[in-house]
Specification:
Largest sheet: 11 strands, mixed
Distance between the termini: 60 Å
Shape: globular
CATH superfamily of the largest domain: Amidase signature (AS) domain
Number of domains: 2
Strand order of the largest sheet: 1-3-2-4-6-5-10-11-9-7-8
Number of strands: 11
Structural class: alpha/beta
Radius of gyration: 23 Å
Number of helices: 14
CATH topology of the largest domain: Amidase signature (AS) enzymes
CATH architecture of the largest domain: Alpha-Beta Complex
Length: about 500
């Protein structure tokens, strides 16, 4: 790709955009001044890119036919065999389709990205393969990961594994489904507003959003650096802890990682909860749209922790109810600037950039009408806010998020864990093909009230299944102190050992 010197008309247009008034002489002057910099751009363009080597052979795989894909959970099936031995030997793992697997197509839920093929593996992919895992394919996610429901993928909705026609949760919808159906042992999800925990709640799986900066996001299509998280989704706690052991830790690329405390998380298994203090967050049961049966199921589960020897008490964190509002400027303006106008990455991060993705994703501008309704809404709102006010509200929300973090931390000084419903409701019916935009957007955002706050305060949070209501799973969320995933795994494993959650 060659960078050419802008024409006089192009210089005049850019000057107008920048609010500058230039004479013809000014334009000629600037044209001459640009030349040295344009030459530098072309030197950079001619250099080979700096991307990691792809270590394990693979094929592009195939798009499974409907008979192999009843819930529409799979995007591509393939097989990438890892090392001959390791912690994950014998484990079959699916990747959310915003995760780069070199040589295998990736669309991140959007028709505008259809046809893109990554040229390197995400850090966590290499780590799993080095540990002996078999990567068996890419699973559908929501359109650019911008939905807590499972109805926005460009190929059609992903169906709940327990009740066809109902939401599987989002945005890691396919990940939740293939774990729940037993098609894989483990899956990787992503979480910016709850997108690991919400599908885990709706599908009945164990989903861990680790502390921000524990697991590298390198090689995963970003939404916004302040809220991007990735983590394990599994059918049991032991597999979840094992997978986190493999994927956690600094990779030398991700700028958010600050010497995280990586631990042997499987050592938390079997330690029980005797002597632990758990705070039931009152406001977590007061979210808009909260279902009484879901609240009752979670409160009943909390009593089970008490029977296991933990001290369980209700606590109040009023600011929790403001969490989604504080999240909104960060999520809206961040995704608009980074993922959309910034071609997936934006600027000012010492990261490993996927320039191939940036080049391909830039094409959304010519296909914007095909974007999902949620993507259109966030894109237009974020652009309007930036045009009118600049990024000041993003900045203020980040500042205020520290006060929200402090509110949780104050309670976590007295309690080991916080407990609340993962989602205020069980899985909802999927919007019909002719549903109005208002319904489509409502079904995408109505469930994020308890999950989104911890994406901006960065606390680790895990959803675990704790019962069934009307034939659909209920999720309970445990929240811990930063980098204390071990404490969450202790409690989750103890709860899991009580018996089958489906009969609770």
């Amino acid at each position: 790709m060659t960078v050419t010197l802008p024409t006089p008309d192009q210089i005049r247009a850019v000057a107008d955009q920048c609010g500058l008034s230039l004479t013809d002489e000014d334009i000629a002057s600037f044209s001459g001044l640009f030349k040295g910099s344009i030459d530098a751009y072309n030197l950079v363009a001619a250099m080979p890119d700096e991307v990691p080597e792809v270590k394990y052979p693979r094929t592009p795989g195939y798009a499974p036919p409907p008979e192999e894909n009843r819930q529409n959970a799979w995007y591509r099936k393939t097989e990438v065999k890892g090392a001959a031995r390791g912690k994950l030997k014998g484990k079959r793992i699916a990747l959310k389709d915003n995760i780069m697997l070199a040589g295998v197509p990736m669309m991140n839920g959007s028709a505008t990205l259809e046809g893109y093929i990554p040229d390197f593996d995400a850090t966590i992919v290499t780590r799993m393969l080095d540990a002996g895992a078999d990567i068996v394919g890419k699973v559908h996610c929501e359109h650019f990961c911008l939905s807590g429901g499972s109805h926005t993928n460009s190929t059609g909705p992903v169906h709940n594994p327990h009740k066809h026609g109902y939401s599987a949760g989002g945005s890691s919808s396919g990940s939740g489904v293939v774990v729940a159906t037993g098609e894989v042992d483990m899956a990787i999800g992503g979480d910016q507003g709850g997108s690991i925990r919400m599908p885990s709640s709706f599908c009945g799986t164990y989903g861990m959003k680790p502390t921000w900066g524990l697991v590298p996001y390198t090689g995963i299509m970003p939404i916004e650096i302040f809220v991007d998280h990735t983590g394990p989704m599994t059918a049991n706690v032991a597999d979840n802890a094992l997978l986190l052991e493999v994927i956690a830790g600094d990779d030398g690329y991700d700028p958010r990682i600050k010497a995280p405390k990586v631990q042997a998380y499987t050592k938390a298994l079997g330690q029980g909860v005797k002597g632990m203090k758990i705070g039931i967050v009152k406001e977590g049961f007061e979210q808009p749209g909260a279902e009484a049966k879901v609240n009752a199921s979670v409160r009943q589960a909390a009593k089970r922790f008490k029977n296991l020897g933990a001290a369980v008490e209700e606590v109040s964190i009023p600011m929790h109810l403001l969490g989604p509002a504080i999240w909104t400027p960060i999520g809206t303006e961040g995704l608009t600037a980074t993922m959309m106008w910034g071609d997936g990455y934006g600027l000012s991060r010492s990261d490993l950039y996927s320039t191939s993705l940036m080049g391909f994703h830039r094409g959304w501008r010519g296909q914007a009408d095909s974007l999902s309704e949620t993507t259109k809404m966030f894109l237009m709102l974020g652009t309007h806010i930036n045009n009118t006010f600049g990024p000041r509200f993003y900045g203020k929300a980040v500042n205020v998020s520290r006060r929200l973090k402090a509110a949780y931390d104050a309670v976590l000084e007295q309690y080991d864990l916080l407990l609340m419903p993962t989602t205020p409701m069980k899985a909802t019916p999927l919007p019909g093909p002719d549903a109005p935009r208002e319904e489509i957007v409502a079904r995408a955002l109505e469930m994020i009230g308890n999950t989104a706050p911890f994406d901006i305060t960065h606390h680790p949070a895990m959803s675990l299944p704790c019962g069934m209501v009307d034939g659909l799973p209920v999720g309970l969320m445990l929240v811990g102190r930063h980098f204390e995933e071990m404490t969450i795994y202790r409690a989750a494993h103890a709860f899991e050992q009580i018996g089958d959650w489906k009969t609770m």
